[in-house]
Each structure stands twice: as structure tokens, then as C-alpha cells.
Design a protein that fits this description.
With 177 residues, this protein is mostly helical. It has a domain of 114 residues. The protein is elongated.
Length: 177
């Protein structure tokens, strides 16, 4: 049952970081429609699509943009929860199987999250698709991109270091026989 407690705390940390950061990110993006347009254009130009295909693609996604904008915060939080569950397995493994102290395990888990899910994808995009990275960085500051990993790490570390109500939430009530 201890593993499920670790996974629960990790999911809770991811959920809290998403709840904090998604509204902030959406408010900082400004014109999300323009960002998506430029991103689609950059990707299609990189793929060698002719202008008529680019225009047809932009016309076809125009109607979907309002739905995508409404659903993107929800999907971001769901992704963070899924990643929180996966990272919770690592967090529990480090504590239970490798005897790493919970605070250090939280820092290692958060660092893994930050590197694998924030820094590595940005580095790959920057190297392989510089045009796409240019559009991305024009609208989203790199610090906003790494903010989920940093926030997740901070919250999980607090959960590991400080006794609080979350410790009771993660423990199952004993069953009476």
C-alpha cells in the first residue's frame, strides 16, 4: 500500500501544479489563435507543403480552434496527472527499493520529470525544427515551459518534507474484521 501512497502524493503534486500553471499559461499566451496559426504554418512549411495546402489546412482548423482552446487546459491537467502517476512509481521505487530519503527521492523524481518532459523535448525541437522553436519561443517564454516540472518538484518536495493533511489523505483507513 505504500507505493499507492507515493503515487497518490505524486498525482496530487502534479494536479496542484497543473491547477496553478494552466490558468497562468493561458493568460500569458495572449493570442492563442495566432500562436496556433503560426505554429501550423511553420510545421507545414518545414514539411515542404505548398501554400494552397497550408491555406486549406488553416481553413479546416479554424472552426476547431475554439474547441481546442477550451479543451487544452483540461487536457493539460489530465496529462499532468498521468505523468504524476508515472513519476509516482519512480518516487516510490526510489524510496522503497533504493532506500533514498523521501525528500531526495522527490528531488530526483522532479528532476527526472523536468529533464524528460520539459527540457529534452524543447532541446530536440530546437535542434531539429528551429523554425517551430522560434514560433514557440516567440509566444511562450522558456521559463513557462519548464514551470510545470519546477512546480511539480517543489510541491512533491514539500509533501515529502512537511507533515500535513495530505499524509492522511494518502493512507487507507484500516478495515475492521
Amino acid at each position: 500500500m505504500v507505493e499507492s501512497k507515493r503515487v497518490f502524493l505524486s498525482i496530487l503534486a502534479a494536479l496542484l501544479s497543473g491547477t496553478i500553471l494552466v490558468p497562468l499559461t493561458v493568460s500569458l499566451l495572449g493570442n492563442l489563435n495566432q500562436f496556433v496559426r503560426e505554429l501550423v504554418i511553420a510545421q507545414l512549411e518545414l514539411a515542404g507543403a505548398p501554400p494552397n495546402v497550408i491555406n486549406a489546412t488553416l481553413d479546416s482548423i479554424e472552426g476547431m480552434m475554439n474547441y481546442i482552446i477550451l479543451l487544452s487546459p483540461v487536457s493539460s491537467i489530465l496529462q499532468l496527472v498521468l505523468f504524476g502517476a508515472i513519476m509516482g512509481l519512480l518516487y516510490g521505487y526510489l524510496i522503497e527499493k533504493r532506500s533514498v530519503k523521501p525528500v531526495y527521492s522527490a528531488l530526483l523524481t522532479g528532476s527526472t520529470y523536468l529533464v524528460l518532459l520539459n527540457l529534452l523535448p524543447i532541446a530536440i525541437i530546437s535542434v531539429t525544427q528551429a523554425e517551430v522553436a522560434e514560433v514557440l519561443f516567440r509566444y511562450i517564454h522558456p521559463l513557462i515551459i519548464i514551470a510545470p516540472g519546477v512546480t511539480y518538484t517543489a510541491i512533491l518536495t514539500v509533501f515529502s518534507a512537511v507533515k500535513g493533511p495530505w499524509n492522511k489523505w494518502a493512507e487507507a483507513k484500516p478495515e475492521k474484521y
